Write a sequence for this structure.
């Protein structure tokens, strides 16, 4: 029998990708800091890679966990792992479709088993499941075990809104047709008119039967049954979109969800070992270095990679480039032009992975050539760094629209599908030149202020988070009351 006096207990299951695990870990800490008991469930794959990145072996029983430090500081965060349906050694980067298919079809069976065993623990029980919005099963799993379902959306509210209203896009001929309309989309509640090219990549495709499409359609059906939605955005960044979503669901903007100290965290989350480039950055003048990264899982084509490499070289700007081993493909681990590294000498640091928040916060960094992952954008704003945008997939196109058109804190690298080395060099020069840099810098500082204010004690994200805590406690209380009465 469940203990009715115990503290509220939430189970958190992030999507098993770096950009989803990171904010979920910090959401878990935020909740535990406010008196919740949290069970955090990583996939075995993410668990294995996080430990490997730290050069640590799991304890004998495989239970070594990333939260031990915060647990020592008194927070009640438990940790366990679950299979995503594939062997840990399977190359998910090379076989992305198969990985996604496993998450679509197989993962929920494993999740059910683990959640079931947590709920059944004598004297414990759980109250709520917090799962990534991209999962297709949370409302069903939550219902099965009598849990509330909180959907965690790790992208901007604008992207949530586009997916949530996919039927409107279909009815109006902007999606799901072979000759889709090319005029602006002006009928999504709360969303300012938007060009079709600014939709997410999946919404721009005419073939809509891929695994990722099935994930999106099913997940956004499932989220309709969520009790609450938490979004890693800031109300002041997307006011009308957030307001319109609040009319649909209890929707809370609680971002940016960062570690307390931003650059330092007590919880290791990187899936790859972090190279340290701080000493090299220390030797560079303030604002002179470009940081280049395309995130944790999107790939560059070889021609794009070559143009970007030559463009960086032509620009004469110093740079740190995070070049994952699988950036083109795990079958093509050395895609840089011959002699590229030697030719650059001390002008560049090329590394496989870094502690991005620390790099962005280093005073030598003056710009960020980014694929426009949402975490990267929030981190860049927080660090006051203007962006050069090169979206590749998924929400990145919509995120670029926010950065370049709405907030004017960055530049587009290219308006065409292909980019050239000259364009890369010119845009880098524009971003990093003294005149335009100060213009972008002022703009990014103004947006940064909104983020900082949102996290103040009376800021919008703090108030939304407090409201969420009150609302969920009320619902938990009501549920227990009902059970007691039954
Ligand atoms: N990141 C990192 N080191 C790197 C590159 C990225 O720690 O060398 C982190 C980055 O700080 C961010 C996450 O990985 O929190 C990437 O998330 P994002 O949403 O930007 O892109 P995604 O990888 O999901 O495409």
């Amino acid at each position: 029998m469940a203990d009715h006096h115990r503290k509220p207990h939430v189970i958190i299951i992030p999507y098993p990708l770096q950009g989803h695990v990171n904010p979920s870990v910090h959401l878990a800490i935020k909740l535990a800091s406010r008196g919740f008991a949290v069970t955090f469930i990583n996939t075995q794959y993410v668990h294995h890679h996080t430990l490997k990145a730290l050069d640590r072996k799991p304890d004998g029983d495989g239970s070594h966990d990333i939260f031990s430090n915060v647990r020592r500081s008194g927070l009640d965060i438990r940790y366990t792992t679950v299979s995503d349906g594939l062997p840990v050694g399977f190359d998910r980067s090379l076989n992305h479709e198969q990985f996604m298919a496993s998450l679509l079809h197989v993962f929920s069976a494993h999740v059910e088993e683990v959640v079931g065993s947590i709920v059944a623990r004598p004297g414990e029980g759980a109250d709520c499941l917090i799962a990534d919005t991209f999962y297709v099963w949370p409302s069903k799993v939550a219902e099965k075990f009598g849990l509330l379902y909180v959907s965690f959306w790790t992208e901007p509210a604008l992207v949530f809104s586009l997916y949530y209203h996919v039927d409107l896009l279909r009815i109006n001929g902007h999606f799901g047709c072979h000759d889709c309309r090319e005029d602006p989309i002006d009928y999504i509640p709360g969303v300012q008119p938007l060009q079709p090219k600014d939709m997410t990549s999946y919404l721009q495709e005419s073939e809509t039967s891929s695994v990722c499409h099935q994930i999106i359609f099913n997940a956004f059906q499932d989220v309709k049954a969520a009790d609450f939605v938490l979004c890693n955005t800031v109300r002041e960044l997307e006011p009308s979109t957030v307001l319109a979503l609040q009319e649909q669901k209890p929707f809370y903007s609680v971002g940016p969800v960062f570690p307390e100290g931003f650059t330092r965290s007590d919880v290791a989350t990187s899936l790859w070992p972090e190279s340290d480039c701080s000493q090299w950055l220390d030797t560079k003048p303030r604002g002179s270095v470009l940081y280049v990264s395309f995130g944790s899982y999107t790939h560059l084509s070889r021609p794009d990679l070559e143009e970007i490499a030559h463009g960086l070289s032509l620009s004469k700007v110093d740079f740190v480039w995070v070049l994952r081993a699988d950036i083109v493909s795990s079958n093509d681990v050395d895609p840089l032009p011959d002699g590229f590294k030697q030719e650059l000498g001390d002008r560049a640091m090329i590394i496989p992975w870094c502690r991005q928040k620390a790099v962005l916060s280093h005073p030598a960094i003056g710009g960020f050539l980014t694929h426009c992952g949402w975490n990267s954008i929030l981190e860049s704003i927080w660090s006051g760094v203007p962006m050069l945008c090169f979206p590749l997939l998924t929400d990145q196109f919509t995120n670029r629209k926010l950065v370049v058109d709405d907030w004017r804190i960055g530049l587009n690298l290219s308006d065409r599908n292909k980019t050239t080395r000259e364009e890369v060099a010119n845009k880098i020069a524009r971003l990093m030149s003294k005149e335009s840099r100060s213009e972008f810098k002022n703009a990014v500082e103004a947006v940064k202020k909104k983020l900082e204010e949102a996290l103040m004690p009376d800021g919008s994200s703090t108030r939304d988070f407090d409201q969420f805590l009150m609302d969920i406690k009320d619902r938990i209380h009501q549920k227990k009351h009902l059970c007691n009465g039954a």
Residues 278-451 form a domain with the Rossmann fold fold (CATH 3.40.50.2000).
